[in-house]
From TrEMBL:
<dbReference type="Pfam" id="PF02629">
    <property type="entry name" value="CoA_binding"/>
</dbReference>
<keyword id="KW-0804">Transcription</keyword>
<dbReference type="InterPro" id="IPR036390">
    <property type="entry name" value="WH_DNA-bd_sf"/>
</dbReference>
<dbReference type="InterPro" id="IPR022876">
    <property type="entry name" value="Tscrpt_rep_Rex"/>
</dbReference>
<comment type="function">
    <text>Modulates transcription in response to changes in cellular NADH/NAD(+) redox state.</text>
</comment>
<feature type="binding site">
    <location>
        <begin position="100"/>
        <end position="105"/>
    </location>
    <ligand>
        <name>NAD(+)</name>
    </ligand>
</feature>
<keyword id="KW-0963">Cytoplasm</keyword>
<dbReference type="InterPro" id="IPR036388">
    <property type="entry name" value="WH-like_DNA-bd_sf"/>
</dbReference>
<feature type="DNA-binding region" description="H-T-H motif">
    <location>
        <begin position="26"/>
        <end position="65"/>
    </location>
</feature>
<dbReference type="InterPro" id="IPR058236">
    <property type="entry name" value="Rex_actinobacterial-type"/>
</dbReference>
<dbReference type="InterPro" id="IPR009718">
    <property type="entry name" value="Rex_DNA-bd_C_dom"/>
</dbReference>
<feature type="domain" description="CoA-binding">
    <location>
        <begin position="89"/>
        <end position="190"/>
    </location>
</feature>
<keyword id="KW-0805">Transcription regulation</keyword>
<dbReference type="GO" id="GO:0003677">
    <property type="term" value="F:DNA binding"/>
</dbReference>
<keyword id="KW-0678">Repressor</keyword>
<keyword id="KW-0520">NAD</keyword>
<keyword id="KW-0238">DNA-binding</keyword>
Length: 247
């Protein structure tokens, strides 16, 4: 069993809800900003405001980690950063391969936040012969035929799929067959994977549609949707951790 699978088993045994796991990176981002600003301790109210959640939810989430803070003082920022980083597996390096080097793949390759958060991009792959061999962000784009070799040679743990929709499932099948059990999918398609493989989907068009939904309601559009009654999320909206990609 891998260390990641061990952590997943431990979280399940401790009863940490998936919704809490999804919010931990948001807390970590807020805490890192506080730490960079020289803040040593933070109250649950202050941290909740920085993370965009209510303080009761934050305290409950952190209690799953065994972190309750100190009455009248709050949470020690440095220690809480360590706690959450350890829980998320960020105290070790994770090797990533980016498959599909179009505009989005290039932006991901140039994103400086990966290394500072424990992720190392091992390489870039594409099927387009005109792109293969090109230097992007200090890496040489390799042909997709090298996919399995790259996974084996570099110990890739996470595959980022940024291909067109028509190629995504075939690529996913190959990375899973090569032993990768975590996939971040930017392709506009739902991927089918076997049990034990985790897929996180990021679809920017869906998020824009959700924002359009809210804009329509603000302007007095059709329907009687009450955002307060539904915790501010429209029907079918998925909560996920935002990934900011800087080109």
């Amino acid at each position: 069993m891998t260390s990641r699978q061990n952590r997943q088993r431990d979280r399940a045994e401790r009863g940490i809800p998936e919704a809490t796991v999804a919010r931990l990176p948001v807390y970590l981002r807020a805490l890192t900003t506080l730490q960079d600003g020289g803040v040593a301790t933070v109250s649950s109210e202050e941290l909740a405001t920085a993370a965009g959640v209510n303080s009761a939810k934050l305290r409950k989430d952190l209690s799953h980690l065994g972190s309750y803070g100190t009455r009248g003082v709050g949470y020690e920022v440095e220690y809480l950063v360590y706690q959450i980083s350890r829980e998320l597996g960020l105290t070790q390096d994770w090797v990533v391969a980016i498959i599909g080097v179009g505009n989005l793949g290039r932006a991901l390759a140039g994103y400086g936040g990966f290394a500072s958060r424990g992720f190392r991009v091992a390489g870039l792959l594409d099927a387009d012969e005109s792109i293969v061999g090109e230097e992007i962000s200090g890496m040489t784009v390799e042909h997709i035929d090298r996919l399995e070799d790259m996974i084996a040679d570099h110990g890739v743990s996470i595959a980022v799929i940024a291909t067109p929709a028509g190629a995504a499932q075939v690529v996913c099948d190959r990375v899973v067959a090569a032993g990768v059990t975590s996939v971040l999918n930017f392709a506009p398609v739902v991927l089918s994977v076997p049990e034990g493989v985790d897929v996180r989907k990021v679809d920017l068009s869906i998020e824009l549609q959700i924002l359009a939904f809210h804009e329509q309601r603000k302007a007095g559009g059709p329907g009687d949707y009450d955002p307060v009654a539904d915790d501010g999320a429209p029907p079918g909206a998925t909560q996920y951790v935002e990934a900011v990609v800087e080109a």
